[in-house]
Amino acid sequence: MASKFPALRVLENSRVSPPPGSVAPASLPLTFFDVIWLVQHPVERLFFYDFPHPIAHFIDSCLPNLKSSLSVTLQHFFPLAGNIRRSPGSDDRYEIAYVDGDSVSFTVAEHDGDFHDFSDDHGCDISKLRQLVPQLPKAQDAQPSLAVQVTVFPNHGIAIGVSINHAACDGSSSMHFMKSWASACKSGGSMPEVAPPPLFDRTLISDPRGLYSVFHHDVEGMTAPEPSAEIPFADMVHATFSLKQDQIQRLKRLVLARAAERETSFHCSTIVVALAYVWVCFVKMRGLASDRKAYSGFPVDCRGRLQPPLPASYFGNCVGPCFVEVAVGDVIGEEGFVAAAEAIGKAIEGLKHGILDGAEIWLRRFVSVLPEQPMTVAGSPKFRVYETDFGWGGPKKVLVTSISGPGNISVAESRAEQGGIEIGMVLPKHVMDEFSAHFFNGLKLIAK
């Protein structure tokens, strides 16, 4: 039977490692921030670039530079060339181990599909997008940290797909790596130094309360997700929704005006109103009974919130969850958006009192509300993903394809204007149409 999708042809499967002898053998122990993600699905991003050149031009002029720049970047980010394994002699401790010669899977492919169909905002079949995502193989004894796939749409564009083991690093660190690789590529494959260099010192994260053991115990009781290739994606589409700067400003003014009327205050930022607006649309789409609870959770960077704070260049995981719950009746009511924004804003304010307060139940709390399909968030506008320039200009589109569960969304800064927000999600086509109706109808109301 012929494939329903345009053909993808693999041109090369190779390995890229740091320059020989450039990195001494090393091991980095996983911290309690890392071990949370030990059995989770890899984080997958696709970066689409306009590239109006034939495949021969890419292979002759661009591919060698992409590989050499990746090699020198891995010299500075060596854990991504290493493997996650159980620490020798331990039953519950894990580490990222690197030895000379460790490498990253690097796939080059050619696709004869419509580049714009893949990279536009409208709903694109997630199974088509997954053709562009490298698989990160799992093994009992060691798990690789990174895989890369570069797919060329001749005379139209390039897609760079990366899969990163979440136990190796969070979004902040992975984007530090991606921008460093892009910078090296843009400069011709050389990288005398990374500014700022990644910081690997695990002693900066203390664990006097034994959170590692708590999290490891909880993770052991979790079932590892199926490999992404086996997840059913029938009729699932990825779509991107945008909130423009002027729309966000209207939403902020609405929230602040209602807060002033009630003589209350809370944290009200671009991300707060963006998440609140999407959450309201999501709850309305689901049609939940008003006496139920609506749940949301999103990651918060802990680097600047720990005592003492960590530098922004710390490489690894250093995020904690921010949980929010509101009665469905409050979210879908006339003042639902304001109620959602207030709940999110106050939850963020509550983190000021101690980012690790209640950390012992982070995983159990999250698992307990999973049956309610909470809205969960990947990414951040602070990552500035559209500044990832390999020498072909900024990306036309950046997608997170690992948000395949119900209620998962991704957020990024707008590529079109300063101060805007992009929201990505994966839903069945008919459900996406319903969400879209709530999203755009709501924007019409605030525009009046």
Automatic annotation (TrEMBL):
Domain of life according to the entry: Eukaryota
A Pfam match: Transferase
Protein name: Malonyl-coenzyme A:anthocyanin 3-O-glucoside-6''-O-malonyltransferase-like
Record-linked SUPFAM superfamilies: CoA-dependent acyltransferases
Entry annotated with the keyword Acyltransferase: yes
Organism expressing this protein natively: Phoenix dactylifera
Keywords: Acyltransferase, Transferase
MF-aspect GO terms: acyltransferase activity, transferring groups other than amino-acyl groups
Claim: Transferase is one of the keywords in the record: yes
